Amino acid sequence: MRALAVLSVTLVMACTEAFFPFISRGKELLWGKPEESRVSSVLEESKRLVDTAMYATMQRNLKKRGILSPAQLLSFSKLPEPTSGVIARAAEIMETSIQAMKRKVNLKTQQSQHPTDALSEDLLSIIANMSGCLPYMLPPKCPNTCLANKYRPITGACNNRDHPRWGASNTALARWLPPVYEDGFSQPRGWNPGFLYNGFPLPPVREVTRHVIQVSNEVVTDDDRYSDLLMAWGQYIDHDIAFTPQSTSKAAFGGGADCQMTCENQNPCFPIQLPEEARPAAGTACLPFYRSSAACGTGDKGALFGNLSTANPRQQMNGLTSFLDASTVYGSSPALERQLRNWTSAEGLLRVHARLRDSGRAYLPFAPPRAPAACAPEPGIPGETRGPCFLAGDGRASEVPSLTALHTLWLREHNRLAAALKALNAHWSADAVYQEARKVVGALHQIITLRDYVPRILGPEAFQQYVGPYEGYDSTANPTVSNVFSTAAFRFGHATIHPLVRRLDASFQEHPDLPGLWLHQAFFSPWTLLRGGYNEWREFCGLPRLETPADLSTAITSRSVADKILDLYKHPDNVDVWLGGLAENFLPRARTGPLFACLIGKQMKALRDGDWFWWENSHVFTDAQRRELEKHSLSRVICDNTGLTRVPVDAFQVGKFPEDFESCDSIPGVNLEAWRETFPQDDKCGFPESVENGDFVHCEESGRRVLVYSCRHGYELQGREQLTCTQEGWDFQPPLCKDVNECADGAHPPCHASARCRNTKGGFQCLCADPYELGDDGRTCVDSGRLPRATWISISLAALLIGGFAGLTSTVICRWTRTGTKSTLPILETGGGTPELGCGKHQAIGTSPQRATAQDSEQESAGMEGRDTHRLPRAL
Prior knowledge:
Low-confidence stretches: 1-33, 62-67, 300-311, 823-838, 840-876
Structural class: alpha+beta
Largest sheet: 4 strands, antiparallel
Number of helices: 24
Number of strands: 22
């Protein structure tokens, strides 16, 4: 009976396993699988594909930290900041999910449709939400305090209350003309081999470089009008307003091919093909290159805010704020800002290097240990192991020495201003000092750029035409940096870089002990070509199209260059915007041709007129403060933060030393007395004490004093954010700042699933189980390549146990053998010698063999007393 019952249970279980899936499948066939469940399974698979590619990337980076190729160094400079990385990952998961859903729908319907034609708006919304993209596609919540009009948010959001995403970090670059994709949505020009334009294939980008752009170092000449600082400032300002990070993964999502190795176009891999005669080494058919990160809600990710009958084309993400706001100094996200600030300082200072000093002056701090070690080692360190790069508001601060120098200069200027403002207003909180110094530094960036830099680039006529005088804030002007400006027009500066980095002494002469560095030696040492139609953009700017070789020759003086361009592209409409704009003749007293003057001018005007916090806007500074700011200059900043005592009055102008240089004593600057804050004597409120882990900033609303409280990163406010001074005093008690448990956020976990999250005061920590360790993103666990510590402990314990067991066994055997020998073997007298024992080798530590033998002999003799030594053993 018992056997029969067991058999019955087994049969029931077998039938359940066999028929339940059939019933489930039948239910799906009859009623269809719920959308959330269907999307969830696709999303989980998409996350696995994306994260596997990211994991493989970090694993390769971990194994190659000591030896990095030039391509890897370039790749590190394009890595997104952690906040941008989270958004880029969400976008990649969403894109991968919709592509997978598209394939499923097409297989089911046997139709070839684009996803936004096949998927409903509700389904796209579900995918956006579950992928993590939706929060970055919705308008941000704008603060409703008087502080919102006083200081710009670190993310750039809410500058324009009607369009709060305009100019904000981690949003899509603007499009002034529709993009040209080979599939209409996301495949860039040149993606599909054999695709023809005006009857001709596009030339490989490497061929354009070799035949048109590339020249020998010997033919490069110095600018006879402007200094190298003009070029350096352009690069620095470019890094203030635009950064298009590349994909967070360095491997293809589908097949997992390594983008450093493959020569096939597999998203995000977009390698640069090399002709055989241009290949640097045998078997190297291409150079690694990656696609840029897409912005959430664009491309194959569907049109959640528009007509669902057509798809939004892929847009690239700007990881920085678009505004001229010195984000190079302060960052574009709360997380990075937190890393950059000195939270122990009462003066609102920025962090500096803890050990290194330049004659007492500060250096930038190093990036945290988990960041990629992409920079050259300190002098004297052997081997090829690289060290950390400098930490600044932009991750490219260590690319070249001139860029690092400007970042260092503005770090020092902020701290100089903050210390002076605190001395002037002792009652200011650390946050108030920080925000005021940040506001002044941002204004100086704007003044130097629009007053001193841009007119020299565009020339006076083009500047007047495209920029003109400031006429006040324009709420209809979109300040978002455009794609064509970021990736083409403002990259005119790439052709202005001198191949030799000169190192000068205090008299601006070649340093006898520090010879010049070739540019390739200066990269990452603190110790691409955009394909859009050139003629389309000329038409956009109101310039005539160039239809014939004769037309091209009118815009490009060099007939040989014009001929090479036409020989490569075959048709004028095929010419790329960057190359065409770069080759144009300069305008009078300018460093660009008419096309780039138009594009750069339009962008700079939008950055100025569409910025609510532009320094000339009446609410930003007082009249007295604006008058003081107008006196300041880059030359004055150099005087205040270096050891130089003489500088050119115009830092961008070429001059001979010493006749064209002025003493720093005669270079005007800002008088901070205009920032001294005073209060009525009969004020009954005073200033309350600072809140622990938080701060307050003073502002005015309707003529009354207001305090606005904020908590430091990792804390949340409990209580009233804003207090107003009344006749009876402050209207509410100060709030509290409570620690946020980031690990409890199930919707957006701070750590990857491979890591364990531990909440810390003011933050969190991602922990990995041995032998895994955190990857470069600080949230994902990767294999360290070593055995787990537990394994080593187990091996050690096993060795100890084995050794102990062997010793114990040996001791037992010895004693057993010794006892057996005494009881079973006859003792033969051999001329007074001692008997030979088999375990005589096993001695106590520190006992000599001779002494041990004597002791054994004595014991043996004692044991024989009273025995008959002439009888046979019992065994016999």
